[in-house]
Design goal:
By secondary structure, this protein is an alpha/beta fold. It contains 23 helices and nine strands. Strands 3-2-1-4-5-9-8 form a seven-stranded mixed sheet, with helices on both faces. Strands 6-7 form a two-stranded antiparallel ribbon. It is globular. The longest helix is centred in the N-terminal third of the chain and has 25 residues. The chain is about 40% helix and about 10% strand. InterPro entries: Methyltranfer_dom (IPR025714), METTL25 (IPR052220).
Length: about 600
């Protein structure tokens, strides 16, 4: 049941303790790592006189990075044997940095098991893309085997599988069906997701379509009454002319069929699905457990205390923390298997990051409202979870949203076309920010929010203490990314016509409406040669952020380890092929069995 190593760290480390000690020391002492993971934001790439590339990349790295092809750089960072690279070789300091990132990155390899896994029927696969089919097949089999191992080792039978944030319930539907036949509790906060999941349950034959009895004449009359008179055919007009009294036997229910839900019939030896609507604000499952203990809800389940396993594929942000905490909070939860994602949605327990070296500031990302609110929340459910990270070197370890967003990247999977696409999007956005600054749409501010013009004296301006006001643009239509000209015109149109930009609309109209095609072409001529600078930094940021994900996952494992009075075993391992699903690390915890009563 338990892998040979509780964390999939590289073999250069002898023990998990040695790995954790050195990981924490590196992330808190490497200036380069801290700059690339949370210290720079591509929005301000061209807004300083020198530019971010010259300011943040070590001098000896710059010539080599600028002459290296983007895909070649990816290969060198992540795949090639750096001891046998041909000339021109990267600078030795860059090679050492690559080695450090690699040796602190948790292993992501996953041996293919597709041929040994039960296949999903076409009815079960409705609505799933290949990525989701891969995830459901592998994870359903994984948690089934985990439950079997727990029963064999501790003689403790898992009675229910609680899926945190079940969405369309693809995983639960597979587990409730043959060959697994599990009791599933799907906890979901969005009503429309539950309604959609029930429709899919009917298609997959784990639930039945409700039979609707209607008086046909009354039903047709009601439909006619809802149709404009000029759109009724001859039959409808005749029916409307002959009113029919409502029958006492059949009501004229005009709701769409999907609103009638689905019928679930418990059967001995077969799986069963229960949906519970609600948002989990913590790991407390008291309400869920209370509903399960009502024998009227599930008459097939013996009247015994439920023994739960909390499971989730890609629970976003703090929802992963709630799933992990549920093992500690709820006596009924016997095990967890949680695959997290969307690290950018995590809140921050310790507040904004602080850095002791003089080149960094707490948060160089765009100072939008959500970032400030989340950083200031000091949310007890946020990152980090473990006491080890909360108290490390007194101040604890903190990650700002920029670092956590970069941890959601999958640089191992980047293709040349995809890479060029998002490098181009970031380049266009960085140039637009420079235009906004030049034309007075935005201004420069210090990291504490003080406008540059309001402060005199003090340290000189640099990319490490000055940023620009954000303009949250979002995505544009695909045609806007064909050229810088199309992008800027599309951005101006969106910002001056959409109701989402009322506060900025007037100033953008005033300052941007007269920009000419010649001016845009001049900006492109000036900054196009520097696009390679941006792509090099973005690649280094994504490569470095592999450690950010390793740190977040390690923190979750350490949290389970610190509760050794309750947790028997805790480990992390891969459950998906990284090429299909890069967030492929599952955090597992198994509770100590209760002593047998004599």
């Amino acid at each position: 049941m338990i892998p040979s190593k509780p964390l999939p760290y590289p073999d250069c480390w002898a023990t998990p303790e040695e790995y954790v000690d050195n990981l924490l020391q590196f992330v808190t002492s490497s200036d380069t790592f801290q700059i690339l993971c949370g210290g720079v934001h591509v929005l301000d790439f061209f807004t300083s006189d020198t530019g971010l590339f010259s300011s943040v990349v070590p001098d000896e790295w710059q010539p080599w990075l600028l002459q290296c092809d983007p895909m070649r750089l990816l290969d060198i960072l992540m795949r090639e044997d750096i001891d046998s690279l041909p000339d021109p070789r990267p600078p030795e300091s860059l090679l050492r940095y690559i080695q450090n990132i690699r040796k602190f990155s948790l292993a992501r390899e996953y041996p293919s098991r597709e041929e040994r896994l039960p296949k999903l029927t076409w009815q079960m696969s409705v609505g799933m893309k290949p990525k989701k089919i891969h995830e459901v097949r592998n994870f359903a089999n994984y948690v089934d085997q985990l439950a079997s191992d727990i029963q064999a080792k501790f003689d403790s039978n898992i009675t229910h599988f609680v899926d945190f944030g079940s969405g369309q319930n693809y995983l639960g539907r597979a587990l409730a069906s043959a060959p697994y036949n599990k009791q599933i509790v799907a906890v979901e906060g969005r009503e429309h997701n539950i309604a959609g999941a029930k429709e899919l349950d009917i298609i997959a034959r784990v639930a039945e379509k409700p039979k609707i009895m209607r008086n046909k004449k009354l039903w047709m009359q009601q439909l006619d009454s809802m149709t404009p008179e000029d759109q009724r055919d001859e039959r409808a007009l005749k029916r409307a002319a002959k009113p029919i009294k409502a029958s006492e036997d059949y009501a004229a229910d005009l709701r769409p069929r999907k609103e009638f839900g689905a019928i679930y019939t418990p059967e001995e030896g077969k799986g069963f699905i229960r949906y519970i609507e609600g948002r989990l604000e913590s790991g407390d499952l008291a309400d869920v457990i209370g509903q399960l203990e009502d024998t009227h809800l599930e008459p097939v389940v013996p009247k015994t205390d439920p023994k739960l396993m909390a499971i989730s594929i890609h629970s976003c942000g703090n929802l992963s923390h709630h799933g992990i905490r549920s093992l500690i909070i709820n006596p009924a939860v016997q095990a967890i298997a949680i695959v997290g994602c969307c690290y950018n949605l995590l809140t921050e327990k310790l507040g904004p990051p602080t850095y002791k070296h003089p080149y960094m500031r707490p948060s160089l990302q765009a100072l939008n409202g959500r970032v400030i609110r989340e950083s200031a929340r000091h949310d007890p459910h946020g990152f980090p979870l473990s006491d080890r990270l909360c108290t490390y070197r007194d101040d604890g370890i903190r990650l700002n949203i920029t670092a956590r967003m970069m941890a959601c990247q999958a640089p191992h999977n980047w293709t040349e076309a995809e890479s060029d696409g998002f490098f181009t999007r970031h380049f266009f956005r960085a140039v637009l920010q420079k235009i906004f600054l030049d034309r007075g749409v935005i201004s420069k501010v210090y990291h504490d929010g003080t406008p540059v013009e309001d402060r005199t004296g003090g340290s000189p301006q640099s990319p490490f203490n000055v940023s620009t006001n954000p303009v949250i643009l979002g995505s544009l239509s695909k045609s806007c990314y064909k050229s810088l000209h199309a992008y800027i015109r599309g951005a101006i149109t969106k910002l001056t016509t959409s109701s989402d930009y009322r506060e900025q609309r007037d100033i953008i109209k005033e300052r941007m409406s007269d920009i000419t095609d010649e001016e845009i072409a001049e900006y492109e001529r000036q900054y196009q040669p520097r696009k390679r600078e941006l792509s090099a930094i973005w690649t280094l940021m994504a490569f470095s952020a592999i450690i950010v994900e390793s740190l977040i996952v390690t923190d979750r494992w350490l949290f389970l380890r610190q509760h050794s009075d309750l947790v028997q075993d805790a480990w992390v391992e891969t459950v998906f092929d990284y090429r299909q699903s890069p967030r492929n690390l599952v955090v597992v915890g198994v509770k100590k069995p209760k002593p047998r009563s004599r």
